[in-house]
Amino acid sequence: MSASNILVATDNSMRSELAILRAARIREQYAAKLTLLHVVDDDQPPELISDASLGAERLLREAAARIDPSGVCEVATLVRGGDPFEVIVNVAQELAADLVVMGAHRRRILKDVFVGTSIERVMRTGSKPVLMVNQSPRGPYKKVAVALDLSEVSAIALKTAHALGFLGSAAVTHLHTFEPLAKGMMIYADLEKDVIDAYVARETVDAHRAVDALIAAVDGGSAGYDVRLGEGAPAAFIRRAVEEIAPDLLVIGTRGLRGFQHFLLGSVADEVLRTVECDVLVVPPVS
Q1: Which CATH number is 148's domain given?
Q2: Which residues cross the membrane (predicted)?
Q3: What is the pTM of this model?
């Protein structure tokens, strides 16, 4: 399986150009249908909306021509008015896209706020996987890290990454944090270090087995992979692992608490998504 219907949301910035280039690579690799979307702010005078729409249409046509100079496999273009995140979510549903590709959010010099940006809102409220592109593509993804918390959400994220074709030929490392619950009490009770270490070692083995079981349930365990385990806060562990592994792509899932809350929103995603340099595939639980 692979991505077959891709929507690229572009604001015609350099960040969006990277997203277009990555989507073009995926399209070429899997012969996928590709649509380029630009959203014009409709909260302005009609003449400005018209001028902005015409300019956007021209830029989208130029981008489509760069992707497919021959015009044999037409790249569709769309210009819509409205709130960017609402339009992107709605168009993704209209087109039955199986992947939304967007450029990374603007990184501010003094303070980087991820929550509230268009891409964060699309990730939080949409039902489609979102690929946030940070890097200029150099070919198919060769090294992929997958953050797992052993939930059904993680299973869906892993399954979706497989279905989109991102894991087929890549070296995959699964990242999982666990908390040896009795460790703190053992330290408080002043038990010997060897006893505590032996307990943590057993917990580590159990955590590894649980990760293996989840992976086997998703793909039968047929593909080769590595597992990296860590104790403590997921955000710090994921950031550190990404720095050390240097993957091309990080895969994470989102959890729909009361339908709107983000699994990694604020604590983990606001740290991970605004700091990692690799591309990130964010998968909602309904993918």
Answers
A1: 3.40.50.620
A2: none
A3: 0.87
